[in-house]
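Continuing the series of single-chain predictions for the mutant panel. This is the parent chain; the variants come on the following pages.
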Amino acid sequence: MDAFLDAMNEFLTAVNGVIWSDFVLYAVLATGLLFTVWSGFCQYHALAHGSAVVLGRYDEHDDPGAINHFQALSAALSATVGLGNIGGVAVAIALGGPGAMFWMWVVGLVGMALKTTEVTQAMIFRNTDDPDNPHGGPMWVVDRGIREHFPALEALARPLGILFCITLLIATITGGNMFQAWNVGVVTNKAIPSFPVPVVGFVLALLVGLTILGGIKRIGAVAGRVVPLMCALYLIAATYVLFVNADKLPDTIRLIFTSAFNPAEAQNAFIGGTFGLAFLWGMKRALFSSEAGQGSSPIAHSAAKTNEPVREGVVAGLEPFIDTIVVATLTSLVILSSGAWNRDGEATLTEVPSFTAAQEQGAWSLPETELPAKSPEAERVSGPWAPDDNVFLVARYGEIDEETGDSLHRVNGVVRRADDGQLRVRWEAVGDADDAISEAPKVEHPVVYRDYPGAALTSYAFDLAAPGLGTWLVMIASWLFAISTMISWSYYGEQGVVYIAGEGAVLPYKVLYCLFILAACSGYITTDSDLDNLTALGTGVMLWVNIPIMLLFGVVAMRAYKDYFKRLKNDEFAPAKKK
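Parent structure:
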């Protein structure tokens, strides 16, 4: 099984290297800038008019749709404001450095234009044959849009719709499902070691399964209650941590800006990235977190009650602002101001271990090492060592990595209890026949670090401010965020299944969806890189299909956008009629 998973990770890494090339990131950024300028900076209208719409000023009871604007925004936010903000931001900083946050802000702002445009398109072309259960999303945009505007290409309409649905289902299973479940498993097991990750998966699968059986109305109702609660809880705790670290905030904000263009400002044992690495990880995690340009949120917004497509489009423009500019920013400031991203090691080995050649050609290994107790401060924050803790040393080997600008690498290990009762670390070998290391790696400093992948790093950052706060807060928030995200993404995938195979395929799909939750918590995903391979694949394939759809029908959306605000300026909209 391990060999299969290694091969799968290598395959996904190769695929992601193509779908996340620099060209793709520049194309997404350029598309967001295009619609920003074309719309006359729709970010302003999203914040001003979009807020009024969400508050119910323009709600019409008799308009087609299943849920109101606030519920539609909550359902979409429940899919975006989640573990992408807790775990995804942590991954971005761990792998791309503090400068990644700057690029997340950039994507957040242009993402407001992307969301406004793609949701407006979805509302224009949504299927309202059943007014109480409308269907929408890029698959309907490309299907109906081609039939209406390019009839000569009608034969391509449905195949292109199916192509988008395939990418939607990939993202649903990876980022919308497995990423969430894995992070909850890790965080819960950290807080309650007696609660195994597979058991977490079973409980999650049960709760999600019971919710998604109720369809979009139940999902909208649950999201409308859970999303405000979980955001308030998380934001209050994050504000407390920032208050504790208030004296460090000016330097933290300066570091974000300087390391975005000069990452040498932030080199340490965990990262040492170039400008390109900060840009890459900031873009990737912001796009994953906000889902801007993916085409997922339009599916939730298409269920909203309205006869004005642009009205729901500007509501959707609020999502990247709330998700990235507010929530993700607070998470990044907590991680950076607390020092969690560039922390000291938990323990120091009594002597520097030396690598020896392993049996496999080109590989090197460290001997099993006795593990000293944690330093008093480390033990105060995160407790003593325990069997199965993931740890690492930092070693120097190989050529200078063009991406990180250094030759430092992590050497991962797992804590185990030996027969004599002592805790020891079994280290993983580095290098192999395909990636041979000619000279023995060198451990420069025998410092042992506890590994905090994904949301666990955010939890640790809260714990630094108040021991126990992060462990329990992030665990509770992770459960709320993950469940809300998974139920919304289950609906996204369901709409893709309905488009491809009809309503009869929905129940088998929901069963499979819950089984993937169990798979994510099976214990075979263990590191940030494993996690990123899954989430990057889902986000990337959707962007490849949805961005061209947005550009193809951009003129339709922008024409409707300008017409709507012309009528709004002329006071053509009567007060909402409510019953």
